[in-house]
Amino acid sequence: MNEVVFWLRRFNEICARRHLQPRSLLLALQCSNPDFAYQHFRGMLCFFAAMTTTINVPPAKPAFDLQEALRHLSERDEILKVLIAETHAFGIDAEAGQSPYEVLLEAIVYQSISGKAAATIYGRIKALGENDRPPSPDKMLKLPARKLRKAGLSGAKVLAMKDLAKKTISGIVPTHDEAVKLSDAELVERLVSVRGIGAWTVEMFLIFRLGRPDVLPIHDLGVKKGWSVAYGKKHMPKPQELLKFGERWRPYRTVASWYMWRAFERAGYKVTNKILPKAVRRKKESPAKKRRAKTEIGHVL
């Protein structure tokens, strides 16, 4: 399930601490289809975060005027206006504590393996550092690859962590204080240059770590399927189609995305599992074109 597991683990812990058992999460856990579970987990991330508070962090207000955002979206989108009125109020608590380096380091560990295995490996990685934190970038570069492999990392993940450490030291990966001053586009450009880090991981970082108001994860299955449910479409939008549609939501696309996740969750997997990418249709050749093609073949023969 790649980096999705990294973010989902946080919300699972929150649900357990608050004795919450979201219906959709239970359905996904009981499902034997890994593709469905992946799709459902990915689309539910913002829902879990919004319904609970961050572990060991006091509730925080959004870094923007929420009422203004809701007013703006309601005026520009009648369907979104109904969603806002019918579902729970938007609320995301930006996380604190970890530096961008630490967040991305943990995300690398969680790629392509089960959450339980990743948690064990990440615990071993933290044991190589100090004060229950992972090794600093300087120490990471000095650690022998064999020691990281012994902790359970693959060769590709060792290379990714070394690259992350190098780019943190060089300043490409910013500190938290520096990240706050950078635009979303600048952060995406910088962070995806790290080996093993994709745009989706960076978008989740922007939403949950920095609380940015205008992030639209156009490749996220939950957002795409939620859009299909909300706007009565039988197919998922292509990323560029969703990007174009989302222009009406600026500068509060994070809030709109959150409501797309809510539409996805509210519909249930029996509905959303039927929403597929639009089939590619081949253009039918005109009779005249077919005749020309036959004529050309005849000349060749």
Structure description:
The protein has 2 domains: 4-94 and 215-277, Endonuclease Iii, domain 2 (Orthogonal Bundle); 100-208, Endonuclease III, domain 1. It is mostly helical and 301 residues long. A two-stranded parallel sheet has the order 1-2. The protein contains 18 helices and 2 strands. 38% of the residues are buried.
List keywords for this structure.
61% helix; 2 strands; 301 residues; globular; Endonuclease Iii, domain 2; two-stranded parallel ribbon
Structure class: mainly alpha
> Fraction of residues in helices?
55-70%
**Spatial separation of the terminal alpha carbons:** 54 Å
Report the uncertain regions: 14-60
- Our estimate of the beta-strand percent is under 5%
CATH architecture of the largest domain: Orthogonal Bundle
Q: How are the strands ordered across the major sheet?
A: 1-2
For the largest beta-sheet, the strand count, sense and barrel status come to: 2 strands, parallel
Total DSSP helices: 18
Say how many strands there are.
2
Report the top-level CATH class of the largest domain: Mainly Alpha
| Run of helices and strands | HHHHHHHHHHHHHHEHHHEH
Q: What count of structural domains?
A: 2
Enter the CATH topology name of the largest domain: Endonuclease Iii, domain 2
Roughly how many Å is the radius of gyration?
Answer: 22 Å
